[in-house]
């Protein structure tokens, strides 16, 4: 037989009380976490779990009332452009090989510069 949940509802009540007193949720999470010797994120997770169970859920973080996961028109355009870029670079036309060779060359150059810097540091240290 499952145990009755007590910690989540207690945290929810404590946070709700602090928010009603004028604290932000973030401040309330921190205060409750300190009191319970827990992490802020753990307190927040418990709070939002109980809130969802009570049908409240989380308020959308994005203004304009969009639900979480919905993108604005601008965001959809950026996402589409990124997808196009991904399709173009994955075409087997040699661009990938050329890019990989350039990356390898730059990595070798970086390794050489680090080795040279280390050599100079060793010289200065004696």
Helix content: 55-70%
Give the termini distance in whole angstroms. 72 Å
**Molecular shape:** elongated
Number of strands: 0
Q: Could you report the average pLDDT, rounded to the nearest whole number?
A: 81
Which sheet architecture does the biggest sheet show? none
Q: How many distinct helices?
A: 5
Low-confidence residue ranges: none
Provide the β-strand percentage band. Answer: under 5%
Architecture overview:
- The chain is mostly helical.
- Among the domains are: 7-53; 96-126.
- Helices cover 70% and strands 0% of the residues.
- The protein is built from 5 helices and no strands.
- The longest helix is centred in the last third of the chain and has 31 residues, at 95-125.
- It is elongated and about 65 Å long.
Keywords:
single chain, about 130 residues, mainly alpha, 5 helices, about 70% helix, elongated
Give the helix/strand layout.
Layout: H1 7-20, H2 25-36, H3 40-53, H4 73-89, H5 95-125
Helix pairs in contact: 1-2, 1-3, 2-3
Quick take:
The chain is mostly helical. The protein is 70% helix and 0% strand.
């Amino acid at each position: 037989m499952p145990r009755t949940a007590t910690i989540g509802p207690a945290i929810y009540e404590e946070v709700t009380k602090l928010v009603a007193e004028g604290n932000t949720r973030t401040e309330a999470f921190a205060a409750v976490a300190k009191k319970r010797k827990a992490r802020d994120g753990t307190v927040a997770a418990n709070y939002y779990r109980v809130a969802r169970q009570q049908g409240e859920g989380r308020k959308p973080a994005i203004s304009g009332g969009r639900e979480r996961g919905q993108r604005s028109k601008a965001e959809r355009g950026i996402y589409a452009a990124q997808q196009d870029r991904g399709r173009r670079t994955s075409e087997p036309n040699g661009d990938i090989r050329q890019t990989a060779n350039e990356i390898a060359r730059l990595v070798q150059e970086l390794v050489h510069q680090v080795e040279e810097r280390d050599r100079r540091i060793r010289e200065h240290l004696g």
